[in-house]
């Protein structure tokens, strides 16, 4: 098993999540600060989106999670507790898809296919309110915002991180509360079928990405590490972060000009929004790995 060392790129954030490489740039969700932040190669932060002043639907807290880009360049972002997808252009957010009728609890991560079709994961219950895990189907959002439940996903227990192979033909997601990675075949109409086990992890998986060889990098927040796992379950590589400095490893993505830099989002105090903001210990770490992300998404 390969072992890679991680170095801290930047810190000073709340709970960091959903790292993304898009169009030659790295960004992530600074969740409890209501922001999407971009980092330079030197770790200098630029706020791309700040929705701290948003008049949220139903009085919900604005917590930004998964992101993706439409073919026209607009940024999509999930507002977890509002249960809506927002489209952001020039810093202004507009409602793109209202998922309140489909999502039983907070919505979570996202991957957007080349044609603009988005796949949204959801918890299925309110983790922050102490509710118990419940089934949480994947939600499909068509270009333009029409949304539906993906057939055959009703049984998923906390689908979390989510990714697409380069050809768009396979969708892979971390089924968090079942402690495994699972895969689906993506049809021409965007529907999902052929649910199967990709890897049995044995502890809770969070955010994830794929590489060009079809392996998954998956963040394990409990043990503060990131594993590279082959389709079939073989553990191929590991990156660890120092738990005392980094807290929990929440998510990962492959970026850089060659997509061989593994970006790892880490944070403290996931259950206490204010303490996470005030502590400002959320961070981004990087490790150089051997296999590139290629054309996988996100």
From TrEMBL:
Alphabetized Pfam families for the sequence: SGL (PF08450)
Note on cofactor: Binds 1 divalent metal cation per subunit.
List of residues binding a divalent metal cation: 160, 206
Keywords: Hydrolase, Metal-binding, Zinc
PANTHER family: LACTONASE DRP35, LIPOPROTEIN-RELATED
Domain of life: Bacteria
Active site, per annotation: 206
Organism for this UniProt entry: Actinomadura rudentiformis
UniProt record similarity statement: Belongs to the SMP-30/CGR1 family.
Cofactor(s) it depends on: Zn(2+)
Domain SMP-30/Gluconolactonase/LRE-like region: 15-265
UniProt name for this protein: SMP-30/gluconolactonase/LRE family protein
GO MF, any single term: metal ion binding
